[in-house]
Amino acid sequence: QMQLVESGGGLVQTGESLTLSCVASDRTFSSWSMGWFRQAPGKERELVAVTSSVGTGTTYGRSVKGRFTVSRDSANNAAYLQMNTLKPEDTAVYYCTTGPPGGSWEYWGQGTQVTVSS
Fold first, then answer.
1. CA distances (Å), 114 to each of 13, 24, 29, 38, 83, in order?
2. How many other C-beta atoms can be found within 10 angstroms of the C-beta atom of residue 32?
3. DSSP secondary structure string, 37-83?
4. What percent helix, strand, coil does the chain show, rounded to 5?
5. How many CA atoms lie within 13 A of 4 on its CB side?
6. Beta pairing partners, 10
7. What is the chain's pLDDT, residue by residue, as a tens digit (118 residues)?
8. Which of 14, 21, 30, 68 has the fewest CB atoms within 10 Å, counting from its CB?
C-alpha cells in the first residue's frame, strides 16, 4: 500500500510563492504518472497538474497554467509543485495522487493547506 505525504503548504500573501512536496513510500511512484489536485471549501476538486513518470508531457489546469510548475525527483520518490504569483483564489487543500498505468488515481495523500491572503 503506497503512502503519499504532502508538505510545504502555509499562509502567504498575494503574489508570493510556495513549493509543495509529495513524497511516496514506494519506488513504484517514480514509474507512474502523478497528479496534483486541489479543493477549496464548498467547491469541487480541481485538477492542478498531471505529469508523466519522467516529468514530461505535463498538463496544467487553466487557472494555474503559466504560474505553477511540476517537477519530479525519481531518486527520492518525490514530486514538487512550484507555485508562483499566488492569488487568493488559489486557496485550497492541495493533494498529490498516483496510480498504475491505465487505472484510476488509486493513492492519495492527506493534503496540505495553502492559504493566500489578499
1. 11, 20, 24, 9, 10
2. 20
3. EEE-TTS--EEEEEE-TTS-S-EE-TTTTTTEEEEEEGGGTEEEEEE
4. 10, 45, 45
5. 27
6. 114
7. 899 999 999 999 999 999 999 999 999 999 999 999 999 999 999 999 999 887 678 999 999 999 999 999 999 999 999 999 999 999 999 999 999 988 899 999 999 999 999 9
8. 14
